[in-house]
Amino acid sequence: MNLKLIHRHIFLIVCLLTFNNCFAQSKKYACSGRQDSLLHKFVYTEVDKMPEPVGGVKALSAVLSKNFKYPPGDAEYFGKVIVAFVIDPDGNIEGARIINDPSGERRLFGSQLIRIINMLKWKPGECNGKAVPVLYMLPLRVDFSE
């Protein structure tokens, strides 16, 4: 396993999160959302202030670096892991789901990413100054091929 490669990919996710947070804070949305099919409640998808981990992107990067592991076996994997979850107004995660996983039905990466995001406390998203439930998509590119 190439740790340099893992750190590069973690850096990419950190960059994506930083861009997402900067863009969301610089633009006022109309705070729109939809009914979540898993939780059966209204969640926001566009807000004035996006949720973020307590400690910021650095905290997320540190937890990913320490806890994201290469799965057992000798299979080669590459692609994008995408998980989605709702961050409620108290900063708790609900309704975590795997959208895409390069390991397919084995869900080796998605289950790890969900476990890792649950290790963090999150600052809730805001709409008009009020904490609201926000559907959050977290992508992470993996490349464990030689």
TrEMBL record:
Keywords recorded for this protein, A-Z: Signal
Residue span(s) of domain TonB C-terminal: 76-140
Pfam short name (any one): TonB_C
Coiled-coil boundaries: none
InterPro entries per UniProt: TonB_C
Extent of the signal sequence: 1-24
Protein's name in the database: Energy transducer TonB
Organism of this sequence: Mucilaginibacter angelicae
